[in-house]
From TrEMBL, chains A, B:
A Pfam entry, by short name: Nuc_deoxyrib_tr
Official protein name in the record: Nucleoside 2-deoxyribosyltransferase
Top-level taxonomy: Bacteria, Pseudomonadati, Pseudomonadota, Alphaproteobacteria, Hyphomicrobiales
Length: 190, 190
């Protein structure tokens, strides 16, 4: 049984349980045992903060038991991936496990920063970097997101699938996820 | 020699070298050997993308040699921390190394999402969660950022220092960084 941890911001959707159940079902159909955030009971706690720490602990525990991760890095509340998912991607890289990711955004980080964040108001700095009015350079490496994400995936032989979807399906379309599953299945299932 | 990896979005500043040199100097003054992104030469490559992957590899190598990390999780181009830094925080947690972090934003994630991202246009969902007009719930755990970040730091006994600074000093004020250094020095230096 090869266990795959399904990371992503789906937990914030109003129909989170349905989407996560669908992802788990697809993972099983591909031959994996899915480990899904929210599937384990959270111990009783005395404050909101303690509860947050408890959930973090449960998720870290699931990742330790997982053989690989498939992370949904679709931009979330801004121009980059959900930081919770990014933490998990980094965590699995640190553990030395195979990592796969996908994004439902077709455009790369440079384009999103330039158009969506700065509204095109960028200029060349004296050092040659393209920067916003705040002076911060925009990294330009033909990547879907920050180089630590794309680089971390590529370095360990993973795949980062980029597939555009209609805006209304940004967090529910599972085509790119299925593509990740198929790639991971070929590599990790006998 | 205890080696500390200095993670943060300072690399994007126009005066990156100056700020990073100052952070390294403060780390040395506290008794650490600083490992700073950008300090090692990047191998020659044939494309922007290859260069990004090469930088990622150099940064991962530095982290493997580091005994601990101090991560600047000040919100970057949005309401959460820089995803590159978050990847590095997760990576060090996966490696089992001590982690420390700071943010120059006094407000927590819930407040930033509610006010800065949704402009106050939030409502209770039938499941009791506070959500934006896009239906996505806002996590509310009295934390500085996503629970995987705050939780991951707290679980391993680290500290996440939160200190407000004037907006103009958002990425250059090093008071919270110095506080992290002092805490880490007490714990990790004889």
């Amino acid at each position: 049984m090869v266990k795959v941890y399904l990371a992503g911001p789906e937990v914030f959707l109003s129909n989170a349980r349905m989407i996560l159940a669908r992802k788990a079902e697809l993972a099983r159909a591909a031959g994996f045992t899915p480990l899904v955030p929210g599937d384990l009971a959270i111990p009783e706690t005395n404050s909101k903060r303690e509860r947050g720490v408890a959930i973090s602990g449960v998720n870290e525990g699931m990742m330790r038991h997982a053989d690989l991760i498939i992370a949904n890095l679709t931009p979330f509340r801004g121009i980059s991936a959900d930081v919770g998912t990014v933490f998990e991607l980094g965590f699995m890289c640190g553990l030395g496990r195979p990592v796969y990711a996908y994004t439902n955004s077709a455009r790369g980080y440079f384009e999103r920063a330039l158009h969506d964040y700065y509204g095109g108001r960028v200029a060349k700095r004296p050092d040659g970097a393209t920067a916003g009015p705040d002076g911060l350079s925009i990294e330009d490496f033909d990547m879907a997101d920050n180089l630590m994400l794309d680089g971390g995936i590529e370095t360990r032989g993973g795949t980062f699938v980029r597939r555009p979807v209609p805006e209304a399906e940004r967090f529910t379309n599972l085509q790119a996820f299925e593509e990740c599953l198929a790639i991971a299945a070929r590599r990790h299932l006998a």
